[in-house]
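Appendix B, record 7
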Amino acid sequence: MPITGIYGPDDFANRPQGQPDTSRRAAPVPAGSTLPMPSLEWTPAVERATAPLYDRVKHVIPPIEWPLMAPTIHAINELKRARGAVILAHNYQAPEIFHCVADIGGDSLQLAVEATKVKADVIVQCGVHFMAETSKLLNPDKTVLIPDSRAGCSLAASITGADVRLLREKFPGVPVVAYVNTSAEVKAEVDICCTSSNAVQVVESLNAPSVIFLPDRYLATYVASKTDVKIIAWKGACEVHERFTGEELRSFREADPSVQIIAHPECPPDVLAEADFTGSTAHMINWVRAKRPRRLVMITECSMADNVRAELPDVEMLRPCNLCPHMKRITLENILQSLLTLREEVTIDPALAQRARHSVERMINLRN
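Structure tokens (predicted):
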């Protein structure tokens, strides 16, 4: 079913300007909490200690680069133990992070679920800011760090809590679903969250004839094609996925008709129409594991192709490369600094967090 309407900031004449910053305050570092910088020399001991890690990424990181990364990787893994910390990493993180320092990796839904199970006192979120907020919402008593709080998201930036309230005024009684790629302020105003893994399930769980789905217009279009529920969408888009085109995919098929193409549902409809499979990052990875295609194009963020190839080197990746500039703000160097100084800590106003937590937990509980 086509989406029944799509709205954006320009459609509300009385839209408040600006967005209150409810969560990006950097918490002060407690006195005495900063640890000394460890040695970052490439030594025989570091080489031995990190050899099993290099074995995981040897197909995507050249041997000449490893001595530059390994000392920092080794230091991070030692500091995790000293801090009692756990590192969560999204599938879009670079291989040296995803495969060599992360304790838990996955898509937004996997990370949200795993965040509820973490026993560590400190969580380092290697992803973008809304992911760190989600970890904090689910672990209000733990220290949640993001190595660079500037790691934002074009989707999260496209809508505010005030926008959600205006949508509710325009469509009274219509339930609101927020993609997890939103701020805590937005999550506090909606009925339930979703990810690309469970968006259709979430929409249909509401048993409503119409649903407001925000902020990704393309994910909303994909969901609308899979359900009879009438979808009212928002004019947001992922700056990585919206740049792909159907013409680009057709050029890959013309060059090699045997190539397999899989795409993320944040892509425009003409892209999805050319794909052999559409799914979340987790579903895409599982598809590759099951199918083991000879040659593959993954229509999503570049680093995920590297992470999959590290695991499945027999699959040749053809990459139309769109990097997420926000994900790439997270580096080995600032992960190390985050563990040394316990910065940058994510804080959320408790009253707002209580409301936002409800929409995230409702999504997680829907799985069971």
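Remarks on this record: The chain has three domains: 5-10+158-238, 44-154+328-341, 241-323. Residues 18-26 have pLDDT under 50 and may be disordered.
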